[in-house]
């Protein structure tokens, strides 16, 4: 089979190599899946760089989120078991963790429903307890993680403010349903959000960026607000001033979605049921901005790493699956 492999750490476009390899053999509790579509996540770039919290042995195949097909023809969503990731014709996955792909979504959309939307659901509902009528601020609102949070926020009845970088991403954020869009490259984020909220600030902040975005979040969070720390795509891990959290009376909530797979897997299944119901009624739909063939995976992962994409980029293997 064909599979992208990383033999040394570095930038995705430099270290990912397409090769002919043997199909992986399932271990105990694992299943072999034919990959129909693989969604590209920022962690795929971190894996290539050797900067992710999980460091599979070299060589490995990246690709942490797929829509695959079982031997009996069932379409499923899975997180491949590294080092046999999803940028390949076949991947391995934990049989117990397989989730049914919603019929309302094509393969590329189904592949993109899992990590970003599960993270959004857990962040907004489990951690922040977002309520209808509250105001939600989403950093990187046009990206893969942010776009999911925007849709989930709107589905929950919140007013959503999206922060983006550039006019093209601003247009995408508006299409996603943001009530207010702030272009950080052209506007003062703090001033714009304060104006939009009448000086009150926001109830919940969803931050997958870190760095300066977190600094802005602390200035904008309202009384009894909640800042959900999802990741550090900006490259800088902030050091929160806890005295500031005390004085302003807000909460800082960490979210590592992957822990739920071991700590409370039943909740992951419950979340998928909620997401499937939302997808079936059209309240959420993954924004797949690009569908590329398997041989275009390395270049696509690099574009995601460089932050120049919007929504999700999917590698589509099944002919016509992304149509």
Short description:
The protein is an alpha/beta fold and 323 residues long. 33% of the residues lie in helices and 24% in strands.
Can you walk me through this structure?
With 323 residues, the protein is an alpha/beta fold. It is built from 12 helices and 15 strands. The protein has helices at 12-15, 42-49, 107-111, 115-127, 144-155, 167-176, 189-196, 212-220, 242-248, 260-263, 265-280, 297-306; strands spanning 2-6, 16-20, 30-39, 66-69, 75-78, 90-94, 99-100, 135-139, 159-164, 180-183, 202-207, 221-229, 251-254, 288-292, 312-316. The strands form 3 sheets. Strands 3, 4, 5, 6, 7, 14 and 15 form a 7-stranded mixed sheet that branches. A 6-stranded parallel sheet has the order 10-9-8-11-12-13, with helices on both faces. The longest helix is centred in the last third of the chain and has 16 residues, at 265-280. The radius of gyration is 19 Å and the shape is globular. The two termini are 24 Å apart. The model has no long low-confidence stretch (mean pLDDT 95).
List the helices and strands and how they pair.
Layout: E1 2-6, H1 12-15, E2 16-20, E3 30-39, H2 42-49, E4 66-69, E5 75-78, E6 90-94, E7 99-100, H3 107-111, H4 115-127, E8 135-139, H5 144-155, E9 159-164, H6 167-176, E10 180-183, H7 189-196, E11 202-207, H8 212-220, E12 221-229, H9 242-248, E13 251-254, H10 260-263, H11 265-280, E14 288-292, H12 297-306, E15 312-316
Parallel strand pairs: 8-9, 8-11, 9-10, 11-12, 12-13, 14-15
Antiparallel strand pairs: 1-2, 3-4, 3-6, 3-15, 4-5, 5-7
